Amino acid sequence: MPYMSYGPPTLQEEVGQEEAGQRHRMAMEEEHPCVDLNTNYPDVVVKVGKVIFDLAEVLKTELSVSGASPLSKTVFSNKGLTCLSDLRKSLFPMYSNRITYTPEILTKGLFSEYPGLENLMNKQMEDFQGLLIFSRSWAFDVGLQKDQHVVCDALLIATGKHPTLYTVTEKDCSVNMFEYARQTARALKQKLVNVGGYTQRVCVIPHLLQLGTNEEGNTELGLQVKYPASYNVSQKDITKLLNSLVIILLGFRSFLSDSLGCEFFNLLTVKQYEILSKDLHKCRKLFIYGLPGTGKTIVALKIIEKIRHMFCCHSDEILYICENQPLKEFVRGKGICQSVTRVTFMSKNFEKVKHIVVDEAQNFRAEDGLWYSKAEDITQSHNEPGVFWIFLDYLQTSHPYKSGLPPARQHDPVESLTKVIRNSREIYGNIKRQMERIVQDEKLGDVPYVHLKNMLRKATCGHNVSGDYTIKRNLNMKEIANDVARQCFSYLQNGYSEKDIAILCRTDKDTTKYEDILKREMRKFKLNIVFQAADEIQGKHITLDSIRRFSGLKRSIVFGVNPVPTQKEISDNLLLCVASRANLHLHLLFEKIPSGYSGGPQGHGAGLFPELRGARGNTGVAIPQARSKAPTGRIRPVGHTKMVEPALGLPHPSEQYPQEWLIKRVRNATQIYAVMAQEMETIVRNQQIDIPHQRLRMLLDEAECAHPLSGVSKVERNLEEDEIVTYMVENCLQYFQNGYSGKDIAILYSTVKKKDKYRHVLQPKMENEMKNFKLDADFTTADDVLGYGIVLDSIRHFSGLERSFVFGINPVPTQEEISNNLLLCVASRANLQLHLLYGRAQSTKKLTVVHSQTD
């Protein structure tokens, strides 16, 4: 019994109808290897279960295989939003009783660039009613190589006429060129049927034109084969033909293809198509700002394909650069270009490369050299300048360091992508709130916040697909692992596969920490799960990796495990990064907050960023979990900047006007703050140096610590040099074992002279002791504060800087009247732990303030 359908087929029917065309597709298996022709399509419906029925409610079939040619693929848009007819009207506007030249910007550009072209084309147009659609190369648009002698192509679609493809050349009008035009017309006709799904009679007549010749000479080059009148485009068929043309130009393989096991297509947005339609001969450099989920990587891959065809390049002449290894592997698997990370790019030469596409540029770093200058030099080093396009999203910045990009004001020209096409509407709602919070707070430097605010005003969700978004707080590791295992079991029971799921942790260290406990909890649900890293994104298992390493990738289901950054200024950015990776279902799971922590503003993850989580070391000292950098607060304690008696050249305090006061401590742990408060009280009370004591007293009365985060403050006296070295080595060893590095530690002396004196003794001893524990101890000075070594310098030289852990060695000044100021200076440099160590020579000194305080 034949299949019958009343009205447009549903998504379920579409999947079933694919089976009817299986015999036809088998004959084309070699031509279309990306389609699995052995798929049992009714089983696909069972496999996807609830997912396919949810999607059926929101997806609209734009091209049905039941009414198209056997080789066509199903094409969907989203109900109630931009659909095929809207895209057709936007790209191909038609006006009655005249011929319309489109696209308007390209047409004007071509007429300006090639004098005589407009007159030549006007002569070809009679009293037509329809469209003349210009392209720099219709050959490229249908997947062929462009001939360098071709000025442009123009496709005529007019009522009552055969579709005609005009190929315009400047010089060459030979037989070979006409064969090129014929092959292009033939490929376009095949695309209209096999990709666009056009089912009426159709032909495309090639017609070769040469600039500077008369109409009669050009006419002789036309094809002398006559098609019957039934091949003319009728008024009722012109809309269908233009719809097929839209699918050819805007269609791309949907992520649903992998989820459902058969090939589906979605359509590019108009803005994506406009960017891809740019003349690469004129638009060599371009910055593309894209909001999360707007398809930046889709456009990046398509522009690489366009570069290959437009410039007849080999794959090794085009370079794709990104920051993380998994995204590099994903693009490398496409086989269309070289694909490297920024680190590899800076370490090698690329003599063959002519064109460069950079992706996720906001997360690049300048620590290995000036990558931007090197890329620019490479694209300018050949006879003809190459293409250099940079894709970035400042909102998904995952670190606070310099990216190596030029200042935002020098980004020119710039295009923006604002229509989110990846995430469900619930996830998009959260992403939108996160983006608004980021641009409002303006925590990062050299970010074009005004431009980003304008982009957010234009931001829209490009579909109406429903999904889930949940947050759970105050969980321990076992509770988080159990929740992930239970949810995974439910998803797998409902037809999802393991490759649809990603579990993303804050850092690589957290990923290792959670792997074993996740496997144990999975086994409780009889799941024998094998995890894969993001590098194996094309694999079939659950991805378990860090948020940063998953940048630029996506999954239907994403678990964000304690997405709390080590740098507070990027807290909202990191939440945005993990949220934007999820297509349909997002679960954020946060570890317990330290006792008494109240946090900041409550929202989707706001106020959930604990700085300390007690993990006891061998000596009983509370060691925080790993952080790669201390908080960046720059509020200085009152009185501590006055370190010496000589005048600083400042006006008298009565003349310092207007004034603003900063009194809320945001940098130091509570135990360190207590020491500092005691020192500040002593400084104000004793009045030993010329400072505005009355005003400082008012500030101290209002001063407060902005958080209850716990830390350590310790004093050790009467130590021998060997004992000081041993003490520091034992503590540094604990820090390293808990994930910290040398750049988290500073060892400070009272003067440069004493630093130089002790350095020759302490540094070799520390290095020897470290080697006993198989640790490398690299030392640096405050001048190299952005480096990776332990800072070894004077207190004064380290002024204004900070470290998580600070050792103050004999912090006794040569001027007694500033002794409290000097202690305050060294104490305020420590974020989490402060250790003041005094040798025997200083044991008789009168210390008025510092007492041992431990957590």
The secondary-structure class comes to alpha/beta
Count every helix, treating DSSP H or I runs of 4 or more residues as helices: 27
Helix fraction by DSSP (H/I, runs of at least 4):
25-40%
- Beta strand count: 33
Spatially, the strands of the biggest sheet line up as 12-11-13-14-10-15
The span between the termini is 80 Å
What is the alpha-carbon Rg in Å?
A: 33 Å
Task: Name the overall outline.
Answer: elongated
Major sheet attributes: 6 strands, parallel
Which residues sit in consecutive blocks of at least 5 with pLDDT less than 50?
1-51, 215-223, 595-647, 843-855
Content of β-strand: 15-25%
Q: Look at the structure and give the mean pLDDT.
A: 78
Structural overview:
It is a single chain. By secondary structure, the chain is α/β, with parallel strands linked by helices. The protein is 34% helix and 19% strand. It is built from 27 helices and 33 strands. The strands form 8 sheets. Strands 12-11-13-14-10-15 form a 6-stranded parallel sheet, with helices on both faces. A 6-stranded parallel sheet has the order 18-23-22-19-21-20, sandwiched between helices. The protein has a 6-stranded parallel sheet with strand order 28-33-32-29-31-30, sandwiched between helices. Helix 20 packs across helix 21 and helix 23 runs antiparallel to helix 27. The longest helix is centred in the C-terminal third of the chain and has 21 residues. The N terminus and C terminus are likely disordered.
